[in-house]
Amino acid sequence: MTDIYEILRGKKDADGNYQKQPVIVQGITGKYGSTHTKLMLEYGTNIVAGVTPGKGGQKFEDKIPVYNSVKEAVDATGAEISIVFVPAKFFLDAAKDALNSGIKLLVAIPEHVPIRDAMEAIELAKQKDAIMIGPNTPGVIVPGLIKVGIMPASPFSSGKVAVLSKSGTLLYEISNNLTSAGFGQNITIGIGGDPVNGTRMIDAFDMVKDDPELEAMVVVGEIGGDSEEILAQHIIDTGFSKPIVGYIAGRQAPKEKRMGHAGAIVMGTYGSAESKISMFAKANIPVAKRPGEVAVLLAGKMNS
Amino acid sequence: MRLLEYQAKELFKEFGIRTPPSISSKDIEKGRKDAKELGYPFVIKVQVPVGGRGKAGGIQKCNSDDEFELKYPQLLNMSIKGEKTRAILLEKMADIEKELYLSLFLNRSKRCYTIIASSEGGVEIESVKNQTIREVGLGDVDTQTAKEVANEIGLKDSQEEQFVEMLQKLSKLTIEKEAELAEINPLAILKDGTLMALDGKVMTDDNSNFRHEELQKYQEKSALEEQAEKSGFSLVELDGNIAVIGNGAGLVMSTFDLVTDNGGKPATFLDVGGGATTESVYEALTLISKMSRVKGILVNLYGGIVKTTTVAEAFIQAYNNNLIDLPVFARLMGTESDKAKEMLKDTKTKMFDSIEEAINGVVMEANK
Questions:
Q1: Is B165 a catalytic residue?
Q2: Domain B21-91, CATH 3.40.50.1100 — does that match?
Q3: Looking at residues A124-130, what average pLDDT do you find?
Q4: B113 contacts in chain A (CB < 8 Å)
Q5: Is residue B357 annotated as a catalytic residue, yes or no?
Q6: N or C end of chain A: which has fewer CB within 10 A?
Q7: Mutate which of A137, A141, A172 to disrupt the B interface (most B C-beta within 10 Å)?
Q8: How close is the nearest chain B Cα to the Cα of A31, in Å?
């Protein structure tokens, strides 16, 4: 399996430091893409190229070259990471361009991508042994080193807890609480709020679980689908000795209503919060009643 | 999009899936004509986007004009689980021998379509016993698989053939319309041995709406929901009296949970989106101001990229323009929140450091 840590931070150099890995931005000239490119640069992300079909040859902010295709951008820079900001309708084309050009980590920001298009992109990513995060994800961040996403910088600090979350704002909220409580993060991954995710909860778990620097994990789920249940079963089957704490949003949501996220919908008992919480209980994962309680429960687990 | 029964059945007909004769209407004048055309006896079925209407009295037999005049208005004015009747379907009764269950749904973790079938249908899926479950990939259901499913639920000969045909038609519908769920429940075996879809439920992928012009006529949204969508919000209306607003679906869901935990009744789930602006929050307040049942507004925002002062500005504008007169309980967290609190000091907005305190405030206000 492709190693997400290695893609994001490379291997340690002789001085024991990780290396800034190059990143391409697809849709760099758009309003959203350009705003977040600036913010990622501010954070220290090494953005080496942008892609906007038809705008090749331009420079973003007078320094970052813009190419017509990911192929050209990869040929020029050797980057293996791309973050996509194109409108949902054009996502599949952008994803194909990236995955067919050697991108190994594709961060898919757009919301409202049709499920069929997402599934096609996921299938291609599998064939190419690439990781796709999203769609409808805030992205991924290794605090203090690299931010490939739209998350604000302030909630995160470098540390040893991995946070996996379907929701963006809850990821910020809970990471902020963790940071305040002294639990920095080793990586945080936005799974995304769509029904179908390039990187499912279980995939994200497998990607991060063996990192030697990891000490604990926080899983932020929400109603809809069964990815939390499947993760819990996987944890029971494989055993994972480090502390994990969960949170599930949508306990009181009405059935058969989409709660903001395309994927956040309960059909019968499929996708219900009770089902997820009871599976977490079986896997010995305490579930916080409110976001503010996550750090408290984690402190309890770490000390026990 | 969650299609109503009559809309699902229109799709069934389009794909050649057999349904009982039926006609839909939205007012009694049209209903009377339909009744004449269909002829008594028939059933009157309310069309609501939730399950459990049979138990709630939303399906009634009708044998005469007198009964029709009494029952049609009753059913038209009915609400089930907070959902008003959207339309009425008059339908001929079928001579049922046995009820089966059949659905195709998008299996999100396996990322493929999955068939669920059972020889015991007519109840909600959670209670369907002896389910046969088959993962079938992303393409059409092939004949061999369909036959195996038919056999597993005990169908043979002509009924097996009819089932195979129906399942393959349902699969075609699912793929062409980009449905997340297409359900026939009950799928009846009639006394004459033929198969018929007696009720249907179809949910399509909203994100694919742009390439399904033909489904637009089924879009059933309240005026508020439509306006919200134009502004890029997600809005779910409920029958409570506390308007819950926030940025990001997860954060709003979490706030919604806490309000309900503390005895409050939400009137809205309103997500202004990850990138709130002064304009978008102002628009959200405009929407809320039109809902007469709301007694208090709860705002939970996590300012990251968005500054909380941008949000505070929207409130000040709303007060200045007399847009809102309701008490607002707000928790603004993140960038520039101290400045935002200062800005809102002398307004009707009460600021809280934690969401728990804000919720206590709004629940007390709404329960006054």
A1: no
A2: no
A3: 96
A4: none
A5: no
A6: C
A7: A172
A8: 12
Residue with tokens 């028939």: B42
Using pLDDT thresholds of 50, 70 and 90, give the confidence band for residue A283.
very high
Residue A16, min C-alpha distance to chain B (Å): 32
Write down the catalytic residue from B183, B237, B283, B336: B183
pLDDT tens-digit profile of A77-110? 999 999 999 999 999 999 999 999 999 999 999 9
**What is the interface size between A and B, counted as CB pairs within 8 Å?**
171
CATH of domain B223-366: 3.40.50.261
- Does pLDDT of B139 surpass 90? no
Instruction: Report the pLDDT value the prediction gives residue B274, as an integer from 0 to 100.
Output: 66
- Class of the domain covering B96-214: alpha beta
Q: What percent of chain A has pLDDT over 70?
A: 100
Decide if the complex's ipTM is over 0.90.
yes
> Taking residues A164-173, what's their average pLDDT?
95
Q: Tell me how far the alpha carbon of residue B90 is from its chain's centroid.
A: 22
